[in-house]
Amino acid sequence: MRRTSLLFLLVFLALPAQAQQPIxxxxxxxxxxxxxxxxxxxxxxxxAERGVARFDGARVIRYENDPADSTSIPPGSIETxxxxxxGGIWVASFADGMAYFDPATETxxxxxxxxxxxxxxxxxxxxxxxxxxxxxxxxxxxSGEQVFFPQDRKSTRLNSSHxxxxxxxxx
Length: 171
Hints:
Strand order of the largest sheet: 1-2-3-4
Structural class: mainly beta
Number of strands: 12
Largest sheet: 4 strands, antiparallel
Distance between the termini: 80 Å
Number of helices: 2
Order of helices and strands: HEEEEEEEEEEEEH
Helix content: 10-25%
Low-confidence stretches: 3-15, 24-29
Shape: globular
Radius of gyration: 24 Å
């Protein structure tokens, strides 16, 4: 009896499992850069051709520029992104400024139209610092106040907007 039970167990274990395999569907994304960020809700964001893509673990939603909609993402390739402490994300376009994605309304609020933005940082007061070719902009999302710190081309101490933004935020 023991041998029969053991033989039955061995035969049972040797049979291939017939469990239903999950069906996986992948969507192809044309990513503009290698950069990805994760927001406070766990979504993964990546620059994509003509905008950004948000992945929630099951599906991808694309956000692209619509010239007729001022609440869409700015046009041009996305240079950098920043996950905000407020829960949304900031995206910087090398062609046309930057924008804040508000997760509550799923819309973008644009800033610095026409200005190429190369780098974004958030300070401890949740103000956004944006490095451009001409200097650094500090934006207070609560009040909307924007302060511009022009780049001093004659100074050797800080000779690029990237150095200026690092200095301004971390000093």
